[in-house]
Amino acid sequence: YVGEISPRKLRGFANSTxxxxxxxxxxxxxxxxxxxxxxSQSLWPMLMASCGVPALVQLVTLPFxxxxxxxxxxxxxxxxxxxxxxxxxxxxxxxxxxxxDIMKEKATMKNTKILSVLELVKEPAFRWxxxxxxxxTATIQLCGINAV
Length: 148
Hints:
- It contains nine helices and no strands.
- By secondary structure, the chain is mainly alpha-helical.
- It has three domains: 64 residues; 47 residues; 35 residues.
- The radius of gyration is 21 Å and the shape is flat.
């Protein structure tokens, strides 16, 4: 959501920042799971419940956020809703350039052919990218971070 609602010039920063906080959360989880902190048998319920706090905050706050402007414009075709969401997120000002960028992206997506999974696997242009994604995903699953 943050990557989608951020202005184009900040989108890369917002997406990389979220990855940093994912990694930071995993590290904090591993550290707090040590026996000396919350990893003892008596404190395990508190450790397991601690992940519910951010989920609860998100559940309470997300209804007050507007839908993402690209979603409103590209999928729903609601230009006024898009402008209203942009003003709510980014403040008053001239945002026509961002709306034009979203419209260009919509036109580009309209001319792009959607591939099925089988077509994607058979396409030689995507073969190396597909290999890399499969290898990275498999190594992440096998490294043990999920078990920790």
